[in-house]
Amino acid sequence: FDQRDGVIWYDGEMVPWSEANVHVLTHGLHYASAVFEGERAYGGKIFKLDEHTRRLHESARLLDFEIPYSVEEINAACNALLREQGFEDAYVRPIAWRGSEMMGVSAQQNKIHLAIAVWDWPSYFDPAQRLKGIRLDIAEYRRPDPRTAPCKSKAAGLYMICTISKHAAEKKGYADALMFDWRGYVAEATGANIFFVKDGVLHTPTPDCFLDGITRRTVIELAQRRGYELVERHIKPEELDDFEQCFICGTAAEVTPVSEIGPHSFTPGEITLTLMNDYTKEVRPAKAEPQKQMAAAIS
Ligand code: PMP
């Protein structure tokens, strides 16, 4: 992945992809003082870019560091990089971390770096499998208690248990894993939030110890527009048998139906497929951007 053509935005410069390196004594590498974002561009426009950049700033603040670029500067850098790389549809990955000036748990004076990479990432899950629904394992690790980790930060360190859980699931032939939270309630997948449907009503876990995803909030808005009833609440594992439909959602995963969670099975149905299509429409900018329409009206 590190030997590609193109450029990476690195501390304000466009650097050749293969030269965008860090030192091995980087604090972010040793002590996980790193936060990142995952964004998608559709038709040349990054969906909810400003929300992502604001979350990046907040993630860093929760790890006690401040990114030395404003939200506006980061938005502009993401857009400039997307144009420079010539992508219409792409995945965008900003990451901020503490540098290598000092080694040790405390590194208050270490420089804060920011890099942004853009690449082609068509479908997070096997496209053929996606419509039928993907299979989820049940993870051994649980989402931590908010008193043990800054769970609202999209912090690199919080992904350690996600990678272990996803690997364990993949080794058993599953696409991903469902994680419970520290109390034993249903929480989320390793990189996406989860929704269920029963008797025409949507149910989704209260995001009180994991990321309240931007896609999750978009799906809630789309469900409201459709007039669907939606309940945000704590969901017990025993309830998994009662639900008829299930889907996960995230920037990379988009809206992906789920057919199995361990011994529980679901059939992708009308509500899931409707929201999947609504999401696809929502993320794509309208053919003519308002500015262009205005220009056309004036001329
Ligand atoms: N939970 C986790 C653990 C994630 O990694 C992601 C992806 N960022 C999400 C939820 C969904 O967040 P979003 O919709 O903002 O991408």
In total, the number of domains comes to 2
CATH architecture assignment of the largest domain: Alpha-Beta Barrel
Give the name of the CATH superfamily of the largest domain: D-amino Acid Aminotransferase, subunit A, domain 2
Could you list the spans in which at least 5 consecutive residues all have pLDDT below 50? 290-299
General shape: globular
Structural class, from helix and strand content?
alpha+beta
CATH fold node name of the largest domain: D-amino Acid Aminotransferase, Chain A, domain 2
Function: Acts on leucine, isoleucine and valine.
Family: Belongs to the class-IV pyridoxal-phosphate-dependent aminotransferase family.
InterPro entries: Aminotrans_IV (IPR001544), Aminotrans_IV_CS (IPR018300), Aminotransferase-like (IPR036038), B_amino_transI (IPR005785), BCAT-like_C (IPR043132), BCAT-like_N (IPR043131), Class-IV_PLP-Dep_Aminotrnsfr (IPR050571)
Catalytic activity: L-valine + 2-oxoglutarate = 3-methyl-2-oxobutanoate + L-glutamate; L-isoleucine + 2-oxoglutarate = (S)-3-methyl-2-oxopentanoate + L-glutamate; L-leucine + 2-oxoglutarate = 4-methyl-2-oxopentanoate + L-glutamate
Structure description:
It comes from Microbaculum marinum. Its cofactor is pyridoxal 5'-phosphate. Its EC number is 2.6.1.42. The chain is an alpha+beta fold. The chain has two domains: about 5-120, Aminotransferase class 4, branched-chain amino acid transferase, N-terminal domain (D-amino Acid Aminotransferase, Chain A, domain 1), CATH 3.30.470; about 125-285, D-amino Acid Aminotransferase, Chain A, domain 2 (Alpha-Beta Barrel), CATH 3.20.10.10. About 30% of the residues lie in helices and about 25% in strands. The chain is built from eight helices and 16 strands. The strands form two sheets. Strands 8, 9, 10, 11, 12, 13, 14, 15 and 16 form a nine-stranded mixed β-sheet that branches. Strands 1, 2, 3, 4, 5, 6 and 7 form a seven-stranded antiparallel β-sheet that branches. Strand 11 and strand 12 form a beta hairpin. Helix 2 crosses helix 3. The radius of gyration is 20 Å and the shape is globular. The relative contact order is 0.13. Bound molecules: 4'-deoxy-4'-aminopyridoxal-5'-phosphate. 4'-deoxy-4'-aminopyridoxal-5'-phosphate binds near residues 162, 210 and 216.
